[in-house]
Amino acid sequence: MKRLPAPQVVVCDGGPGMHAALKEQWPNARIQRCLVHLQRNVRRYVTTRSKTAAGKALWGLALKLTKVKTIADAEKWTSLLLAWEGEFLHLTKERSYRKDTLEVPSWAKPGQTWWYTHQRLRSGHQVLRRVIRAGHLFTFLDPELTHLHVPSTTNGIEGGTNSQMRLQLLHHRSMPEEHQRRAIEWWLYLHSEQPDPMRVLTQHESRPRRAPRPRLSEPDPGPVLYDTGLDATEGLRLRQGWAGRG
Asked: Rounded distance, CA 205 to CA 16, Å?
């Protein structure tokens, strides 16, 4: 990021590494959280086949995120979230105590005396609330940024670039790692704004060939003083026949 000028808006997922880098390198850039990634984060906790009314309703809210296109849609979605909280928010605060239950969840620590009864529902709701508190949910609808046509998802780069690079590596799995890097660099260059492959190829310097190994020549060693071969002059010779009978 140091090599790039700071943009006005960044559309990204919720990876902590990405947000830490944004805070350090581009602190003034606005952030739009990818709504598709946000849906997947909610699905991770409540799944698409929740058996509770609260889980089903929360997943329904997540599905409606990608249908938000205008400020009116955003206001309607926010009102639905507030309605969900008015009906189900108390479930996210319920606690279970070890002394009062026989079933202890697998993720509970050995010394933990209590935990949230509906932890997965609570986590799914907090995913949405954290993005709202950070102001990253509907940045693309900000009237000041309308002229930039900010997308609400990263689908453009995921489908048009990242998936194609993954497919490129999938079709050439046998390439060494360095060759894979060069292949991706070449693919990206060919899909740049004004590629000129012939100019690159003519200016490309191939690997310098290794100098041939010098041929080692040894002087004539002369007669053999010590050897492991058989010599008839020493009374040693190959015998023929069976069991030495020639």
From this structure: 40
